[in-house]
Write a structure and sequence with these properties.
10 strands, single chain, elongated, six-stranded antiparallel sheet, alpha+beta
């Protein structure tokens, strides 16, 4: 029995060493290939020469009435142009706004996601094929660090930042349009999964002698009609909300790459765990 157990242990030890020596590096190579593809989707050329990046135009679509129409131009992480028509609820007139020629809006979510992908790639490249992993714990630690960066990259695209209405109102985005946006309109851009979204808020100025119970709204990705806020000593209520969006195919590709990479990391961790369980809990 002891001899058989010793032989079994010897075989497992040999398999484990093969895992550390060969399979771990095969998985790391696979992860690098996938994440290089993801990074290429976000690519900003060396020296930040964004003029070399392809400009892509996206038509904003809505399932509601055509209160807001437009075309957005995305160049990597930068929104370089926004051509928007807004039908004002009060007058029923359509107003046309575009970004000023000297302005572009950085999509922070895309920039952050790209940075996390590049950090994951740096972690993987720090262990090239000549590196010898000595323990399963060492592989586990590397996979945890890579998975943390990938989870953060994915979360930046799937979880837009919550903002208060005064934060939206004071954003530099409000000063980027020509002609300037009227005082009773707010806009916000954000990424949600693979969609580039535009929210337009039309506001109603509350009179100082209004009997309405003023209750400032908290922080949210999307505020509803009736939400109230105060800015520059003026109180407003949101009267209409319009959300329009467009699908950015390469963002969808990136999310798929993140999911596949996270699965590969977890599968490698599970294999390490099988051996660890054997060493820790063998019944002899």
């Amino acid at each position: 029995m002891a001899a058989a157990s010793q032989a079994e242990r010897s075989v497992l030890e040999e398999e484990f060493q093969w895992l550390l020596r060969e399979e771990v590096h095969a998985v790391l190579k696979q992860l690098q290939d996938i994440l290089k593809e993801a990074s290429r989707r976000f690519a900003v050329p060396a020296g930040g020469l964004e003029s070399h990046l392809k400009q892509e135009n996206f038509i904003l679509g809505s399932s509601t009435m055509d209160q807001v129409k437009g075309v957005l131009t995305l160049q990597g992480e930068a929104l370089t142009q926004a051509d928007i028509n807004i039908k004002m609820a009060k007058s029923n007139q359509v107003f046309h706004f575009t970004f000023r020629e000297d302005k572009q809006w950085k999509m922070q979510q895309i920039q952050d996601a790209r940075n996390h992908v590049n950090q994951a790639l740096q972690l993987l490249s720090s262990r090239d094929e000549s590196y010898r992993f000595k323990t399963g714990a060492e592989v586990d630690k590397l996979m945890d660090a890579v998975m943390l960066q990938l989870s953060r990259a994915r979360n930046r695209l799937t979880t837009p930042a919550s903002m208060t209405l005064p934060e939206v109102a004071s954003s530099s985005l409000m000063k980027m349009f020509s002609p300037p946006l009227p005082g009773d309109v707010l806009v916000n851009f954000y990424i949600n999964l693979s969609k580039l979204c535009l929210t337009v808020y039309q506001l109603h100025l509350l009179q100082p002698n209004s009997n309405k119970n003023f209750k400032p709204a908290g922080s949210s990705v999307l505020h509803n009609p009736g939400a109230m806020f105060e800015v520059n000593a003026l109180k407003f209520e949101v009267s209409h909300v319009h959300k329009v969006e467009c699908v950015v195919p390469w963002l969808n590709d990136s999310l798929v790459f993140f999911t596949i990479s996270l699965q590969l990391c977890q599968q490698l961790k599970d294999k390490i765990s099988v051996f660890s369980s054997y060493w820790n809990y063998r019944p002899f």
